[in-house]
Design brief:
Elements lengths: L3 E4 L2 H12 L4 E3 L6 E5 L3 H11 L8 E3 L10 E3 L2 H10 L4 E7 L5 H4 L4 E5 L4 H10 L3 E2 L14 H8 L5 E4 L10 E4 L6 E4 L5 H8 L3 E2 L5 H4 L16 E6 L3 H14 L4 E6 L3 H6 L3 E6 L2 H17 L4 E5 L7 H11 L2 E4 L2
Parallel strand pairs: 1-9, 2-9, 4-7, 6-10, 11-12, 13-16, 13-17, 14-15, 14-16
Antiparallel strand pairs: 2-3, 3-8, 4-8, 5-6, 6-7, 10-11
Helix pairs in contact: 1-5
The structure holds threonylcarbamoyladenylate (TXA) and magnesium ion (MG).
The site of magnesium ion has 3 residues, from loops.
Length: about 350
Amino acid sequence: METRLLPAIPENIALAAETIKAGGLVAFPTETVYGLGANALDADAVARIFAAKERPTADPLIVHLSGLDQLSRVARSVPTTAQRLAETFWPGPLTLVLSKQPHVPALVTSGLDTVAVRVPDHAVALALLRAANLPIAAPSANRFGHVSPTTAQHVWHDLHGRIEIILDGGATAVGVESTVLDVSTSPPAILRPGGIPAEMLEAVIGPVAVLRRSLPLDQGLPSPGLLEKHYAPRAALIFFIGPTGREALMAHLAATRAAGRRAGVLAMDEDAPALARGGAVVYRLGADLNSVARHLYAGLRWLDAQGVDVILCRDFGTGGLGLAIRDRLTRAAARVVETT
Ligand code: TXA
Ligand code: MG
């Protein structure tokens, strides 16, 4: 199949909407990462998402809506907490897990009686959703297990020849996926940390729980093999966590260089000069956590493209977007080095 990479101008968004309505696949930008969209109410179209990504059907999809007013098309009931969060954070990088309407295909939800829903905060995504006038099921537009795409070129790299259209709306702003929140439990539970930090949710609804796998340092690291491997680059990523993570990374860099191997490092600006002096191929993530999140996936892909033997990165803490960044790096890592 010929994939068309098109600038996200109104006539191409209209064409993309027609493609969605006809059962086709369209990759489009959101504020988090690019999504691979299909009509969420058409099981055959949704099946094509799984085929294009080579994604196991046991992994349910997020349904995207143009606004809160569309929620009853896919969700059966909306608890008060969910209503308040939606009013506060939509459009935005928060996904709510709600009880589903019976007509939402089982393939979208992997047979669960819940559906994950969000309203993306991106003009192109919203224009596409309005023009199609359909709920759009969309996972990240990468091959399963690869790093999520934050540019149209990343999507092209992973999916060209497998989907009809890629709408190019430039690089995404948040850079990590949405926060997935289960509001059916008490307290509500973060199933995946993401673009809306836990602190921001707690400011609105009080305490939330965080799933264990996102907190290796605080709760004891299980064998890395037990962690879901995901978001992974080709080169082995070694993730340094704990109070002396920075020093452990520098020591590992020196040992890698001494062994005649090339090390790539994802680094904050403050760390970059020392790392470059140490012989690393450095990808600068910027000076704050927003910038780290925005550039994280592009950095992993870029270092992979440099053909480095190993990729090193230190932890950035658990405050704000730090938790989501730690979650992604932990799952992308071949090895987590926990320092004391
Ligand atoms: O930012 C994002 O969320 C991006 C953009 C495209 O919106 N989408 C995204 O989709 O990251 P995906 O498929 O890569 O991740 C969806 C996550 C998975 O971890 C999945 O397990 C969870 O949402 N999920 C989906 N439906 C669920 C459900 N009914 N119950 C619990 N978790 C669910
Ligand atoms: Mg994904």
